[in-house]
Amino acid sequence: xxxxxxxxxxxxxxxxxxxxxxxxxxxxxxxxxxxxxxxxxxxxxxxxxxxxxxxxxxxxxxxxxxxxxxxxxxxxxxxxxxxxxxxxxxxxxxxxxxxxxxxxxxxxxxxxxxxxxxxxxxxxxxxxxxxxxxxxxxxxxxxxxxxxxxxxxxxxxxxxxxxxxxxxxxxxxxxxxxxxxxxxxxxxxxxxxxxxxxxxxxxxxxxxxxxxxxxxxxxxxxxxxxxxxxxxxxxxxxxxxxxxxxxxxxxxxxxxxxxxxxxxxxxxxxxxxxxxxxxxxxxxxxxxxxxxxxxxxxxxxxxxxxxxxxxxxxxxxxxxxxxxxxxxxxxxxxxxxxxxxxxxxxxxxxxxxxxxxxxxxxxxxxxxxx
Length: 370
What we know:
By secondary structure, the protein is an alpha/beta fold. The chain is globular, with a radius of gyration of 24 Å. It has helices at 18-24, 28-37, 55-65, 78-88, 92-102, 111-122, 147-157, 172-182, 220-235, 259-273, 296-299, 325-336, 348-358; strands spanning 39-41, 47-49, 105-108, 136-139, 163-168, 190-195, 215-219, 246-251, 282-289, 310-315, 346-347. Helices cover 38% and strands 14% of the residues. The strands form 2 sheets. The protein has a 9-stranded mixed sheet. Strands 1-2 form a two-stranded antiparallel sheet. The protein contains 13 helices and 11 strands.
C-alpha cells in the first residue's frame, strides 16, 4: 500500500496557527496517542472528541500533515505519512476523515504498484470509492508492462482527477487508446508526458474541455498541432477555447530548442493575428540548456517578438541535453516535488538580449543551429 499512497494539500491553505504547528511537529506516537485517548463513545454508539483536542483541530492537523512543500508537490515526509496512516487505523470515524486525504495524490512508481492500485480501485469496500478522491495521478511504466492497467485506472478516476503525469506514451494502438482515455477526463488541469516513443511521435491529445487546462508538457510536433487546434477553435468562434494563461511546455530531444517549432508556430500565430482576432491567452515554454543562447539569426529578425508568448525554462547544463536519461530523472523529480511548475520562466527576447550583450564587439552570434 505504501507504494501508491497519495498525498494532497488544499488549494488555498491558511497559515497554520501556533497550536496546529506544535501538534504537527510532535512525534507520531504523541499525536496518535492523544487522539486515541480523546476519542470517546456515547451510549448511542456515536463518537465524540474531548475539548482537549476538538475534531476541527484534528482535521486541520491532518491537512497540514498532508501538505507538500510546493503546491503541486507529491512527496511527504515518512513521519507525516506514518502518522496519517496510523490515524486512519484509530477508528472508523478517523478512517473516514483520513482516507480522502491519503488518496488525493497518487504516485505509482512500478508496474506492480500500478496493478495493485487498480485492484484497490476495482474492489473497494462498500460505501467507499477511492477513485472519487484522486486529484493527482503520476504513473511510471517505461517498459510498458502495465499500459492497460494505466488506461483502466484513468477510466475509473476520470471524474475526479485533475493532474496527470505519464512517463512515456505507449507505442501504436495503446497510445491512441491513452489519448482517447485522457479525452474523457472532465476537469483536466495539467497533463505532462516525460517522453515520446523513440523515433516516433506521440498522438496529439484532444481535450473535450480545454477551458480548465493550466499547463501541458508535450513533444515538439504535438505543440504545433495543439496550437493549430486552439486557433482553429478560436477562429470558429468557440467559447472558452482554453482557460486563462495556459502554459504549453515544448519537450524536444537535443541540446538546443527546435527552432523549426518556433518558426512554424510564429507564422501560425501571425496568420491568426492578421485576421483581426485576439490571440487566446497562452504561452509557449521551451526547455533550454542554461549555457546555450538564442542564436543571432533569431534576434536580428522579427522572430519571437510576440510579447508574453515565448519563454525559456532553464535546464541545468550538467544534464548535457534534453531527452537523456539524466534529463528524464531531473524532469520526473521536478514534476514530483512540484518545482517544475514554480520555476521562474525567462522571456525568450530577454534571453536573446542578454546573450547579445555578452558578445565581443563585432560578433553577432549568428551561429548555425539545427
